[in-house]
Structure formats: structure tokens, C-alpha cells
């Protein structure tokens, strides 16, 4: 069981100094736009991942005009009290401490206090570029598979080194062939490992997401979810050799798992060109709740669920069904934000569970 019992924010976004105590498993947070609801949820996410959910540089999370920030969360994890502190110093040095002991590598922390967030701009997961879907997949797998995270870090470092070598060769008119071969061989090794993990994981995950979509939408709407990778169509080493001339010309590596994607179709045509707003929102929730469920199964406890301004996303009936599922049928801690107190209060009452309301 994972519970966040209290949270203290110092110089984080619009908060100069503020503390919160969470007395219930389900917590509703209400307030007008600009009062800090999203920032509060992002602070919880930050403690889980040592970074913002919104991909902004650390320095942009510091309260305007101030230097440095500090977040402190006090958790109960499987009956044991844990204190988690994240500090950004004035020199932009970041520290992450668990029970007073500093992590040597932030990657050691990923997955220990898992959480899943659904925010207003997340529709880009369905409608945006392949980079958004790879980020989603990597965030999920990194929380449940440490070896995947370390392999992915190695792959990205090697990819960066290979691309740097291609740029240098174009600049100086000469390629260090031996070094290119070494980097390519290492990239193939790590890339094949990443591909293998993704392929195996997605075979069941995408089916789960499809089932959850049907539960939310009341129909499967002819939706198909599939994994696409260059490595599904050829040997990675051979693909690198085939793209050698193109890579040299354009000074970057054109094939590999960094080009993977999740492909969504509806009645055999691209989902984003055919789907209604309601169908897009249903698929977003299906993917995120599949993530939430998979982490729960892997960890044997439920990750924290952060729902930011979600009442605008689904019609009332589907929203109530969703809230009953995540609040009443689960033992996980849920944080839900909304601009309207009455709507939040009424919807949470419908779940039949005890809840806490915090006004900002």
C-alpha cells in the first residue's frame, strides 16, 4: 500500500511556502484557474520521478524571482514511513533524498513511489507525434522494469555519440570507420534489448488498453492498437548498414527503436483523423488506466493516481463510471482537481467513499 500523508512545497511554482496534510485516500482539490491545482499535483509527480510531468527545465519550476526550491513528501509504503525530499539548489544542483540519504543516481529512484497522471494536454498522446507515445511507454516500463530503464539510458547515450560522430565526419570530411562500427555494434545490442522488452510488454498491454476503452466507451468502435518498429521489418545491424549513406548525408541515425511508435486505427483508418473528441478522450483514459493497472500488478500495490481537471474530458455518465472504478473499486490513493467545488463534491459523493476536499 502506498499513501502520501503530507506534502510541503517551498518556492515551487506559485507556492512560496505551503504544507498539506492528506487524511483520506481520495483527495479532491478545487480552486479557480491559476490558484495552483496543477502545480500541487505536479509536485507529487515530481517526487516520484525527480522531474516535472510537463517536461520543463528544473529552473522553470522555481517560484518567480527566487533561487532554489524544495519539495518534501511523507509517505507510508507497505506500512513503513518514508520521507522523500527533492531540493534544487541555487546553482541548479538537484538532490533527491530518501529518509535523509541522498541518491547517487536518480534512476535508482524511478518506480519506488509510482504514480500515474492524467492532465488536460495529454490528448497529444493520441493525436501528437510518435515521441509522445514513446515517452509514455518508456515512463511506464521504467517504473516496473529497472533493467529496461538502464538499457534505455545506455541506448540514448550511444545514439547521441553516434549522431555526434556523424556530424563531426560531415564537418571534417572524414569518418572514423572503426569508431562508427564500435558505436553501431553497441547500439544494436542495446536497441535489440529495448525492442525485445517493448514487443513482449505491448502484446498484452495494448489488448488491456483496448478492453478498458470498450469499458469506458461502451463499444470498441472498431479500434485497433498496434506496435510499430523498424526492427519488426529487419535485423537492426542490417538496417544500420542499409542506412549508412543516408545517415552520413543527414548526420543522424535514421533507424532504430528511437523511431518506434504506437499506431491507433479506427475501422482501418488512422484514429486521429476519424475519431470524435469523446473517442479521443476515451482512448487517452484507456491508455493511462491500463498503465495504472499494469503498475499495480507489477508492484503488488496501487500507484498514486493524479487526475488534473478531468471533468471536462468525458461526459457525466462515463466520468461517474470512471470515478467509481478508480475510487471505489481500487485501494489506491487518488488526487482529483477541479475548478468547481459543487461538481467535485457531488461526483465524489456518488462514489460512496470517504474523501477529503482541499480549497486553494
Descriptive overview:
The protein has 11 helices and 14 strands. With 360 residues, it is α/β, with parallel strands linked by helices. The chain has 2 domains: 1-114 and 303-360, Rossmann fold (3-Layer(aba) Sandwich); 126-299, RecF/RecN/SMC, N-terminal domain (Glutathione S-transferase Yfyf (Class Pi), Chain A, domain 2, Up-down Bundle). Strand 4 and strand 5 form a beta hairpin. The longest helix is centred in the middle third of the chain and has 41 residues, at 177-217. The protein is globular and about 65 Å long.
Defining key terms:
5-stranded parallel beta sheet, 6-stranded antiparallel beta sheet, Glutathione S-transferase Yfyf (Class Pi), Chain A, domain 2, 14 strands, 46% helix, 360 residues, 2 domains, alpha/beta, Rossmann fold
- The second-level CATH architecture of the largest domain is Up-down Bundle
Under CATH, the topology of the largest domain can be stated as: Glutathione S-transferase Yfyf (Class Pi), Chain A, domain 2
Q: How many structurally independent domains? A: 2
* N-end to C-end Cα span: 28 Å
Q: How does the overall form come out from the CA principal axes?
A: globular
Biggest sheet character:
6 strands, antiparallel
Sketch the topology as an H/E string, one letter per element. EEEHEEEEEHHHHEHHEEHHEHEHE
CATH superfamily of the largest domain: RecF/RecN/SMC, N-terminal domain
Q: How many DSSP helices?
A: 11
Per DSSP E runs of 2 or more residues, the count of β-strands stands at 14
Kindly report the average pLDDT value. Answer: 96
Indicate the CATH class of the largest domain: Mainly Alpha
Amino acid at each position: 500500500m502506498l499513501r502520501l500523508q503530507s506534502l510541503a512545497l517551498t518556492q515551487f511554482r506559485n507556492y512560496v511556502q505551503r504544507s498539506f496534510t492528506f487524511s483520506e485516500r481520495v483527495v479532491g482539490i478545487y480552486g479557480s484557474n491559476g490558484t495552483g491545482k496543477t502545480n500541487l499535483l505536479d509536485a507529487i509527480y515530481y517526487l516520484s520521478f525527480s522531474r516535472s510531468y510537463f517536461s520543463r527545465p528544473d529552473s522553470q519550476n522555481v517560484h518567480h524571482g527566487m533561487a532554489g526550491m524544495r519539495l518534501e513528501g511523507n509517505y507510508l509504503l507497505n506500512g513503513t514511513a518514508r520521507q522523500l525530499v527533492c531540493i534544487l539548489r541555487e546553482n541548479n544542483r538537484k538532490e533527491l533524498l530518501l529518509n535523509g540519504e541522498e541518491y547517487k543516481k536518480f534512476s535508482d529512484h524511478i518506480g519506488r513511489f509510482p504514480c500515474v497522471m492524467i492532465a488536460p494536454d495529454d490528448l497529444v498522446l493520441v493525436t501528437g507525434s510518435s515521441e509522445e507515445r514513446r515517452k509514455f511507454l518508456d515512463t511506464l516500463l521504467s517504473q516496473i522494469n529497472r533493467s529496461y530503464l538502464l538499457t534505455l539510458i545506455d541506448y540514448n547515450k550511444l545514439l547521441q555519440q553516434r549522431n555526434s560522430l556523424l556530424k563531426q565526419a560531415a564537418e571534417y570530411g572524414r569518418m572514423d570507420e572503426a569508431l562508427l562500427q564500435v558505436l553501431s555494434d553497441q547500439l544494436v545490442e542495446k536497441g535489440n534489448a529495448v525492442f525485445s522488452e517493448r514487443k513482449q510488454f505491448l502484446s498484452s498491454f495494448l489488448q488491456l488498453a483496448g478492453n478498458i476503452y470498450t469499458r469506458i466507451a461502451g463499444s470498441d468502435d472498431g479500434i485497433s492498437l498496434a506496435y510499430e518498429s523498424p526492427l519488426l521489418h529487419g535485423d537492426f545491424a542490417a538496417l544500420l548498414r542499409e542506412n549508412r549513406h543516408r545517415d552520413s548525408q543527414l548526420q543522424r541515425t535514421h533507424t532504430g527503436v528511437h523511431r518506434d511508435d504506437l499506431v491507433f486505427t479506427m475501422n482501418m483508418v488512422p484514429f486521429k483523423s476519424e475519431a470524435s473528441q469523446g473517442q479521443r478522450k476515451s482512448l487517452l483514459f484507456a491508455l493511462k488506466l491500463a498503465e495504472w493497472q499494469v503498475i499495480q500488478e507489477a508492484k503488488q500495490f496501487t500507484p498514486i493516481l493524479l487526475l488534473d481537471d478531468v471533468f471536462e474530458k468525458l461526459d457525466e455518465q462515463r466520468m461517474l463510471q470512471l470515478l467509481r472504478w478508480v475510487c471505489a473499486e481500487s485501494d489506491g490513493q487518488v488526487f482529483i482537481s477541479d475548478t468547481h467545488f459543487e461538481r467535485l463534491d457531488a461526483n465524489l459523493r456518488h462514489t460512496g467513499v470517504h474523501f477529503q476536499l482541499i480549497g486553494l
